[in-house]
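Encode chain A's predicted structure.
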Amino acid sequence: MGSTDVNRRDLIKRATAAGLIAVPAMSALSACATSDGGSDNEVAKGQKTKDNPLGVNKDAGLDFVIFDGGFGTQYGKDAAKIYEKSYGKVELTATQKIRSVLQPRMVGGNPPDLIDNSGAEQMDAATLIAKDQLAELSPLLDAPSIDDPDTKVRDTLLPGTIEMGQYGDEKVWRLNYAYTVYGQWYSKKLLADNDWEYPRTWDEMLALCAKAKKKGIAGWSYAGQYPYYIPFTLYPFIGKIGGREVLDAIDNLEPGAWKHDAVKSAFEAYHELSAKGYILRGTPGLDHIQSQTQWTKGKCIFIPNGSWVENEAADTTPADFDMACGAVTGLDDSDKMPFGTLWAQAGEPFIVPAQAKNPAGGMELLRIMLSKESAQNFSRLVKSLTCVAGATDGMKMSPGLASSSQALKDAGDNVVNPRIFDWYQTLHKEQIGSVLAELLAGRMKPAEAMNKCQEYADRTARDDSVRKYKHA
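Encoded structure for chain A:
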């Protein structure tokens, strides 16, 4: 996996563009960085013992910032209480404004000890890594798990979890806690009440949308204000049509990747939803909560989303809604991958800043969260999987959680894992997202959208200030 070197001036330019730092704070950024990635303010390490394998200083306290989004914050609070039984007090701050709240602290060299780096204001991990702002997590991964001291933490995790924290080498810079299943979310009750079958091909999708339209129900809605939700189904759709290699080419910023026939077919299919009036009226102006609410009210059949949606939409979901995660509808029998293909991967990234005062404490709290007790608590509370293998065994699961678990099981090896969204966050969220918004709003034709996506990707590929990554 390759990368390009980035000098300090370029890093500062890129961080500024990504919203990580403000221009007047450049001197502060330089002041807070150290050659070994450590912090001058780091507390003294505690004694490593069987019960304290990371050497946490029990008098240090812990500063933890958690994202208050679809998963809520209770699971973090519960893990913090367990931490406090053995170590110092946890100061927990919940916010939806991760970048706004933490930007001054990251620049000033006094970041928290653990951050749930998620949401619309997620900090760009690639930029943080390039600026030596994150601690490498091998000490956590090589520590004994809480459930079995003879098993390392890394050996308790679901496949792909460690890889999601890697950026160009074997080092792991973040721990993605939730195991998210993305797909076409729908109500089984709505389909059953209307005697509708889940569509496996695009002709079946269009036929279903036509039937729904006659009943005043839209086929689709999505988070129009956050169009990067669209790829939750579009990327695996492209992969299903053309194979994993098409998604890899997109991730690798290869010339012409966005002009592949699979991309063309997928863009044309999604454009047809708009052209035929199968997208809920007003969708381009809706945020994620508003679009989900319209969906749970039965105003549309499908919404592209992740498995956090069951918890996030709980307040508006009818008791008999029977929420389900469906694998992406394919194009036809010529697809390279079978029906059941979906996008699933470890998500909800937790990071330990390199400048943290108590990085050992941050990793210890993560170790606690990776115990089966905490993992099951998370799944009970938020109706979503964690990255801990076997954590839900024997649990009674909610409809959405049971459905996403079954969808993942049914997919088998047919799980795709695009990385453009975290390797090149600005490209994915702001640029590709804006194109897809125009495409589904009917304001851009598929050919123009493909050209524009390729233009943005080529621009990123030429930008020497952007560190590059490639699939092995």
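Residues 446-462 form the longest helix (17 residues).
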